Amino acid sequence: HLQLVESGGGLVQPGESLRLSCVASGFTLTNWPMGWFRQAPGKAPEGVSCIVMSDESINYVDSVKGRFAISRDNASDTVWLQMTNLQPEDTGLYYCAVGRDPTPTCTMSNGDYGNWGLGTQVTVSS
Q: Which of helix, strand or coil describes residue 88?
């Protein structure tokens, strides 16, 4: 069955970078949207970025544009989120998820994703 495992989180200072990884097993991600979401304490989950594995349709939430970059490797069923110039408001538990349908474009709406990893914690603090 499909399993998603995130890694790469940690504690960093403002301005530093992290690279998150999401590896899928039991599933081939080609043609399926993949999303990165985050949830800060006391807040609802927020879509951060998404990518469609087949044609690289990519979206970002406005607050991370120019700082985060999503990428993928079909051969290894892996999606990365490169995060630069991290700020305290980026703190949260970051999840990856697979879309419910093999659509040619991706959204950052939680309801459009049906399988989720357990998350990796990102903390940005001085």
A: helix
Instruction: Tell me which residue of 94, 85, 100 sits closest to 27, measured CA to CA.
Output: 100
Question: pLDDT tens across 23-78, in order?
Answer: 999 888 778 899 999 999 889 889 999 999 766 789 999 999 999 999 998 888 99
Distance CA 50, CA 124 (A): 22
Cα 91 to chain center, whole Å?
14
Report the SS3 class of residue 126. coil
pLDDT by residue (tens digit) across 95-125? Answer: 999 999 988 899 999 999 999 999 999 999 9
At a CB cut-off of 8 Å and minimum separation 6, what does 111 contact?
A: none
